[in-house]
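We modelled each protein-ligand pair independently. The example shown here corresponds to the flavin mononucleotide entry; the chain sequence is given first, followed by the ligand as SMILES.
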Amino acid sequence: MSILFEPLYIRNLKLRNRTVVSPMCQYTAVDGVMNNWHHCHLTAFGRGGFGLVIFEATAVESIGRITHGCTGLWNDEQLNSMIPIVKSVKDSGAATCLQLAHAGRKASCQRPWEGDAALTEAEFSKGELAWDIVGPSPIPFEEGWLIPHELTVSEIKEIIDSWVLAAKRAELAGFDALEIHSAHGYLSHSFLSPISNKRTDIYGGSRENRMRFTLDLAEAVRAVWPEGKPLFIRLSTVDGKEGGWDIDDSIALTRILSDIGVDVIDCSSGAIAAAGKNTLPTPTPGYQVSFSSEIRNKAQILTQAVGLITDPSQAETILRSGQADLVALAREALYNPFWPLHAAQALNADIDFQIWPHQYGHWLELRSQGVFAKRPGEIEE
Ligand SMILES: Cc1cc2nc3c(=O)[nH]c(=O)nc-3n(C[C@H](O)[C@H](O)[C@H](O)COP(=O)(O)O)c2cc1C
């Protein structure tokens, strides 16, 4: 019996299995509004059998976008663009989660295929101008990047209010779950890490103070997010840099997040500072699973493992050995949006295309029997 294909219950949400599409920016929105690309892209994963589809990092205010192509949820036009997409993914049998985000000092950038760095004349000439960015301290992500404005305490409260408003809109959009993006060097993570947070007020200095933004945020979002719906948070569980945020910090933070009502820690790592000398694990299969395992076992919370999980038996082993409760795939899901349906066959959790959409499963089962139709006289061998 495969654990990967056993349902998982979190609060009132039932996931049909434990496979998750990791959030993936498509850099394809206009003014933060989703479109047909997002609709087809996300629905494909539902049809492909995933248990949960996490929608891409979606900014809670316009200056919180990474690029001009990022999605947002600070107005009703953006909300309305999401409603049919959420419905479409849910109709396919998957549950839906929205990753809410604020890019902080890593905002105002090029799309990855344009260079993945600060905006240049090439983008300005297309009308894609840079904007003022914010962070805990006026330290740029990398040389040549914009210097963030150091947020005042009242501005911090305003930003948290934007998360609250976006969470309310996410509920109106019909999402089953919400994820706070507190990883990869974006705003919440940049408050946690001593590398990017050099403040001397209540939001900086000691670990307790550096955790304050993330905890205030999680508390404010939990207060408006329906009781029966799960709240996830994605952490960069380690910075992998000397003097940075480490796994013990993540465990300490997780214990408090759990008390606040966060249900799942989505365990990523890195990206607080530009590449260079670091102690991050080499990206080999399952390279971040040990972080998930440590947090799950030391902080007694549900975790999601991510990072080069590509093989069905690898995913099954991660769950069976108690290293995670959910496995998330990003690039592998792009390569094969039907990954869960194929994995279920590989793990003998679906022997005759029963879990496929019936419009496909009917034909594939006949194909596997070497026939085209079952009625006498119509059989084509
Ligand atoms: C195209 C693309 C977009 C991504 N966008 C996001 C995002 O919106 N939020 C996030 O937390 N991580 C994002 N990531 C990181 C993935 O969610 C995932 O953690 C990472 O790719 C490692 O998983 P993988 O080895 O299965 O690809 C993105 C990755 C890719 C490839």
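The longest helix spans residues 153-173.
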